[in-house]
Fold this protein.
Amino acid sequence: MNRRRQLAIFAAFTSLLLSAACGPPAGRSDSPAPGTGASAAANEAADRGMYRPVTYRNADRSGPALVVIDGSIKSNNATFTQKVTSNNIADYAELELSKANFKVLERSDLGALTREFQVAYTAGDPDAARKLLGKGKFKATRWVVRFDVLKAEPVATAQRGFSGESIGALAGGLIGGRAGYATDVGVGSVHTNDTAGVWIVGMRYTLIDARTTEQAATGYFEQKMEIGSRSRSVLGVSSTDAGGLTLDSLVQRLVQESVAEIDAKYK
């Protein structure tokens, strides 16, 4: 085979390897690693945490006017409080209550009255509440709603792993020779590690009569969330998967569950 033909074959082979390793040109996909196993696993994990819309039973009926105020988070867990705030929860609640066809008077419309409104209903001061409700669009307010996180803690963790080094060395010694060496290297290269953690988050909603500041109804829901990772390595070929539902996504689903009950019972 002449030199030119060798170079042509080498160039074609190199191009094929690069294509297999890199996938299609970047312009054809939003993914930096399209069509790969890593991309598929990452997208599958991300899909689990995406927003899932809910169809509310009575969404075809208009609900009364209400205002969502910031609730409280009764958890000292830094991981949770870094991810979720009372303001986040109230934003989620306004979104879902609007989808359930309640007339949501957004907190941003309160303007300078936001602090007074919050204090009046947290302290249960009906006189202050009546003064506030006598102003503009808030005259029609029927309910004030708050969402409190009463529980947000990791309750269980587990880890399992395997290393083939000791078994490989033992098997290699028993077999001996080149076969024993190959067995030692092959089995010794196997490493696995699995970790998992479970959180339980509990949320309470409270429906407050806008005129009297008295509690009219309450409900409580809990959900469980698992997060974890898995890694495998054999003969230098490794893979790692990590993911799970995020804490803010779990909180949003608890808000949806609460709004579904409010929609079903309090329209």
